[in-house]
Write a structure and sequence with these properties.
alpha+beta; 4 helices; 61% helix
């Protein structure tokens, strides 16, 4: 099974979960996602997701100076983003439970 397809559908929830733990800038969010085991996540996907979640009101952003180069845009979660994350947790738990049940069941194929 192609994990990238699963990741595409769950990336919003994963990004919101990471930012809910602690505000972060793009590369920091990417690094934390990969450290959590989402090693196939692409840079452009994360940056695009951050921008889209910001435009939808799920994230807030602010700029901070960096000792290591140019200023960094940090993202934090909003009330709308927390509600979206809570909903995603419920949907994922229900989906995961149903799929786990299906995958543990032997399916008989008629001859």
């Amino acid at each position: 099974m192609d994990g990238s397809q699963l990741l595409r559908g769950a990336l919003d929830a994963a990004v919101l979960a990471v930012v809910a733990q602690e505000d972060g800038y793009g590369y920091d969010v990417l690094r934390r996602l990969r450290a959590a085991g989402l090693t196939e996540v692409g840079d452009a996907s994360v940056y695009g997701t951050l921008r889209r979640l910001y435009r939808s009101g799920a994230l807030t952003s602010y700029v901070m100076p960096s000792d290591e180069g140019p200023h960094r845009r940090y993202y934090g979660i909003t009330g709308r983003g927390r509600a979206q994350l809570d909903e995603a947790r419920t949907v994922w738990a229900d989906f995961s439970r149903a799929l786990s049940s299906l995958l543990q069941t032997e399916v008989e194929v008629p001859a």
